[in-house]
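Q: Convert this sequence to structure tokens.
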Amino acid sequence: MQKEVTVRRLTADDLELAVEVRLTALKDSPTAFLSTYEDAVERTDEQWHGWITVVAVFGAFLDGKPVGMVGAGRDELEPDVTELISMWVAPEARGNRIAQRLTDAVVARARELGDKAVHLEVVAGNDAAEAAYLRYGFAHVPNRKPTQRDRSMWLDL
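A:
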């Protein structure tokens, strides 16, 4: 039986859900992100609220159950580039093209804003994520910051 996948932008009204999914992601994949579960649980309600209002956070749902998320923020180096951040899909939901659907949401957001590209950084060694981004059409580009340790990827729009 086909499972129903939905993706929608999460708002401040969804903050509790967004925090729960983010903390689950950090526990499940501690080496995939720059932040840690330990740091995240110490965030104040005000910090979490600031996060969901500054970053466009998209949640993925499989048959109504939250199973993934991604953020779309502003690139710190170029104002007309969207930064794809913190993609995560629950292990039990992988293989349902959820990462693709979440990436679609970020790309659509970038296009709405009139951006020229989407940039992301993938942690070295996260081969599954890197392969998914390559399949989507992202290409490797030189690291954009002198201290950057992760791999830069770019999608022209």
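Helices lie at 15-28, 37-41, 45-54, 98-113, 127-136.
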